[in-house]
Amino acid sequence: MKDSIRHLIQQALDRLTAEGVLPAGLTPVIQVENTKDKSHGDFASNIAMMLAKPAGMKPRDLAERLIAALPADEQLTKVEIAGPGFLNFFQNSDALAQRLEAALADAKLGVRKNGPAQRVVVDLSAPNLAKEMHVGHLRSTIIGDGVARVLDFLGDTVIRQNHVGDWGTQFGMLLAYMQENPAAAESELADLEGFYRAAKKRFDDSPEFADRARELVVQLQAGDAECLRLWHRFNDISLSHCQALYDRLGVKLSMADVKGESAYNDDLPQVVADLAAKGLLTEDNGAKCVFMDEFKNAEGNPLPLIVQKAGGGYLYATTDLAATRYRAGVLKADRVLYFVDQRQALHFQMVFACARLAGFVPSSMEMEHMGFGTMNGPDGRPFKTRDGGTVKLVQLLDEAEQRAYSL
After folding, report:
1. In this model, does residue 67 exceed pLDDT 90?
2. Which one of 35, 152, 211, 281 is at 20 to 30 Å from 291 when CA atoms are compared?
């Protein structure tokens, strides 16, 4: 309603300017506020007092001219002058009631989408597996679910994609830890978070362990049977934890929506080969990279988008590039929304630019990073699972319920 009143006032100002009452070139910020006393109307504006001096008029006199110039509107019953020159607007309750009744009688509540319906892929939640979800996963899950529901309501075909982290260096680290301590690993798997931190500590403390972990990543990506067996076990346990939380949160995510990094593994060599065929690859210290003119560091040097490490392993960029062309070619998406925190803004800018440069997606397909802030610890920095101070999401929900029931 405030916007409607601002529009009415602007029309009155335009009319008075055309009549010579107000000087040309005025661009006031039209303020409309709720009244404190409803006997003085529902909304008030001080526009007459703001423009009285340039108009060379008393505020109340200008207020009278403004009222006379206001277009008629069925949403208002009357407009009065109050005090030194306030305009008080009285809302038409009957008209408001009719609008509400019409909205309630409409399955879409009177809301319509601008433009045609689209096929929209919503990339949301995306926790790393082999460890439990923590508070940092809440925003991507809830914000992404909320937007997906709105798009559903507006008539878009929404395809939810839970791009879980079920591939890469972390799994080589976990496999190496299990191979090193099979008996301990059996008991520790009940606490995925503790298991992950123990493996990460070994990875950080032992260069030999880290080298073995990296070798196992390559073996896993190459389809080694034993690595795959252990990998499936980690994933099954972690995904069951995730699904229990999704069900508890009431978000529209199921196992059918999981399309993790591993799903694109077979396409990763082809992604690199296609980039090479397009003449986009440059070797830098043994790694295969894409350099794009629009991305430079503070010194003005080009930033690399690394798609294959010197040891042969692939990275998030490679998987994300494979995902873009799957979503374009298989899912036939018109639009893709990525709900990932703001720290990944540059990564997605580079991936989107590379995908377009390589022809992985059509020019018509929209790709948008829907960034948001991070959940930080007492030191003001984002939580890190490896440090052990992260609040598990299940613990947060338990405490929230306990506090709610205790009130």
Report:
1. yes
2. 211
